[in-house]
Amino acid sequence: MGKKVRRKAHGHGASEGIENQEETQSLTETVHNESSSDADIDPVSNIPSSTPETRSTNDGRAVDNSKADPSKVTKSGAPSTDSAGLLVDQPSAKKWRNWWTRAFTTFVMVTSFAGILYAGHLAVVLLVVIIQTLVFREVIGIAYGLAKKNRLPWFRALNWYLLGSTNYFLYGESIIHYFKKTVIVDEFLLPLASYHRFISFMLYCIGFVLFVVNLKPDYKFQLSMFAWTHMTLLLVVFTSHFTINNIFEGLFWFILPVSLVICNDVMAYIFGFFFGRTPLIRLSPKKTWEGFLGALVCTFIFAFIFSGYLAQFPYLRCPIPSSLGGATAFQPEIVACNNIVFLPVEQPLTPMLSRFLSRLFMREIKTVAVAPVQYHSMFLAGFASLIAPFGGFFASGVKRAFQLKDYSDLIPGHGGVTDRMDCQLLMGFFANMYIQAFVGNAGMEVGQVLQMTLEYLTSSQQVELYQRLGDYLDRQGLLQP
Questions:
Q1: Between the CA of residue 50 and those of 36, 38, 408, 452, what are the distances in Å?
Q2: How far apart, in Å, are the Cα atoms of 176 and each of 23, 193, 320, 450, 468?
Q3: Which DSSP state fits 62?
């Protein structure tokens, strides 16, 4: 097209040459149009993707390649944003405006968080449930936009039903485990506890049947949406369930992991803001090696000091009371919790360190009190600095896949709830696994013995156990006359 055809001297030859060239050009244009059409259609959602002239950058913005500088266009056709995405390269006014916005909203969130902690264990559990629901709503909302265009019936209602049935199973497991002494002896709760897993499975089956009944000929797309829902349930709901279990183990095990992620995130932003020059990963163009390493060091120091401070308060380190009412910081209902990991032990200092600290504090220091939990906090700090950020990178990958800048604009300067909680979900999961493996209280609790008695002994055996236990306690003088 646009090429001039050189005609031959002989009429017949010239006509044949022009005809052959026109056929070749027509075939080429047809193949090009078909390939362009195929490239512009998403094979799963059947929704047109960005055209070759318009592509999305790493931060989710759509750009016009026809107006881009050819020297700054990557191999994929999108303009390079590696250097422009760094905070140090942004205009000073914009950078500092975003700084103060983030600082203000962070202050508000931290202050609100501290107030909820004072309200007690159950208030913190309610906070986690609300956050979990908001994250689920934001992530499912991405798929809902596609489902709405494809006119899927009952898509949103089915998702919320599956969320409810999943929460029924997970929270029921936690209540049965941590409140045995209340649940096992209650006439109404005992049948629900005994058949809890069967009831939960049947609730899920109802949702599964509803999904199959509503299948339409576009099976591939509907199955992909079903998989999206289950991925969200796994990565959001199941992981937040372990965070709630951390609260039941003691507010210490909720506050410390959450604070470590916040510290790491804030320090990474500050170091990247002032010193960041080396991009860390393409999924998050604003993340830098300088921010990553600076946050790593600061998180370890913060973990050692902050964990020792929190370990002083029985209200924070003790598990939730066995009564469903819980406790508050103003009316603590603390049971005996003598886990040795919270008890400080005097550790001798090396001569060099002793001289340094003695001169720094102007008094002789030869030993320092360190609780074992402060050593455990080092492993939590390592995970918060090295592994948890990949939860954020994964969330960034999802945003890039759907050309989103943020999951929502609910939190000014931060984006959506998912943008703030992506690392926390993975961190809470790890903290619970670490507690169960290395820190958990040894021995058997009264609730466990009571549960075994009711499940494995017959009525006559339970009466015999009661009489024998009463005789033993009476001989020991432990029963009041």
A1: 11, 12, 21, 61
A2: 77, 7, 13, 12, 27
A3: E
Q: What's residue 186's pLDDT? A: 75
- C-alpha of 58 from chain center: 21
Residue found by looking up tokens 């409810």 in the block? 164
b/e string for 9-41 if b means 16 or more Cβ within 10 A?
eeeeeeeeeeeeeeeeeeeeeeeeeeeeeeeee
Strand partners, 346: 369
DSSP for 102-121 reads HHHHHHHHHHHHHHHHHT-H
For the stretch 284-295, pLDDT in tens is 888 899 999 999
**CA gap 387, 415 in Å, rounded:** 22
Q: Which helix (H) or strand (E) holds 454?
A: helix 446-456
Task: Give the whole-angstrom CA distance, residue 216 versus residue 204.
Answer: 21
Whether residue 176 contacts residue 144, with contact meaning beta carbons closer than 8 Å, is answered with no
The two structure tokens encoding residue 57: 């950058």
Alpha-carbon torsion angle 126, 127, 130, 136, nearest 10: -120
Query: pTM value?
Result: 0.72
